[in-house]
Design brief:
single chain, 199 residues, alpha/beta, Rossmann fold, 7-stranded mixed beta sheet, 7 helices, 7 strands
Length: 199
C-alpha cells in the first residue's frame, strides 16, 4: 500500500484525472509509436477501469471513436462507447460491430491480464489464450495498416505469444514503459501491418 500511495505515477494519475497509473503506459507507447491520432477509430479490450480509454478518447478527439469492452463495469467516459461483456461471445461481438458501424479501426488496445495462479503452465496457458483472443479480434476489426498494442508477461509462454504476434503482423516491437514497475514481468508489444485477412 505504501508503494502504491507513494508511486509518482499514481499521484500524477490523480492530478490528471486518470482512473489508474496505467494511463501513462499508453501515453508513452503512443509517444514512441504514434498509435493514436485525431479521427482514429480504436477498440480497447479489457478496458476497465478506463484509463487507456481516457487517453485514447482525448487523443482521437470528437472526430474519432473509442469502443471499450470488459467483463467488468466501466463508468461512462466522454467520447467512449462502453460495452460490458465477454468479447468472445456473439452478442458482445455484435454490439462492438454495431458501435463501429461496419468501419475498420486504426488501433486495437489490449491491457488484458490473466488471473495469476502461481502455476507456471496454467498461467502461461491463460496468457496465451488472452493474446490469441486479442489477435483474433484485431484481425477482425483492424485496417490492413492498423496496429495492435498489447500487454504480455515475461516467463513461460512469452516466446509463444511473440511468435503468434509475428505470424499475424509484419512488424512487432517490444516495449517496457517507464510507468511499468521494474519488478513487474509485464511488457508490451506494438504490432503493425496485418498479415492475415480479417475474419
Amino acid at each position: 500500500m505504501d508503494e502504491h500511495v507513494g508511486d509518482p505515477y499514481v499521484q500524477q494519475a490523480r492530478k490528471a484525472g486518470y482512473r489508474s497509473r496505467a494511463a501513462f503506459k499508453l501515453i508513452e507507447l503512443d509517444q514512441r509509436d504514434r498509435l493514436l491520432r485525431p479521427g482514429a477509430r480504436v477498440v480497447d479490450l479489457g478496458g476497465a477501469p478506463g484509463s487507456w480509454s481516457q487517453v485514447a478518447a482525448a487523443r482521437v478527439g470528437s472526430g474519432g471513436l473509442v469502443v471499450a469492452v470488459d467483463l467488468l463495469p466501466i463508468d461512462s467516459i466522454p467520447g467512449v462507447v462502453v460495452i460490458e461483456g465477454d468479447a468472445t461471445t456473439d452478442p458482445v461481438l455484435a454490439q462492438i460491430d454495431a458501435a463501429l458501424g461496419g468501419h475498420p479501426v486504426d488501433v486495437v488496445l489490449s491491457d488484458m491480464a490473466p488471473n495469476i495462479s502461481g502455476v507456471a503452465a496454467a498461467d502461461a496457458f491463460r496468457m496465451e489464450a488472452l493474446v490469441d483472443l486479442a489477435i483474433e479480434q484485431a484481425l477482425r476489426w483492424l485496417k490492413p495498416e492498423g496496429a495492435l498494442a498489447i500487454k504480455l508477461f515475461q516467463g513461460a509462454g512469452f516466446e509463444t505469444c511473440v511468435a503468434n504476434l509475428r505470424a499475424a503482423f509484419t512488424s512487432v516491437a517490444l516495449r517496457k514503459p517507464a510507468a511499468s514497475r521494474d519488478r513487474s514481468s509485464e511488457t508490451f508489444a506494438v504490432a503493425r501491418g496485418v498479415r492475415a485477412s480479417r475474419v
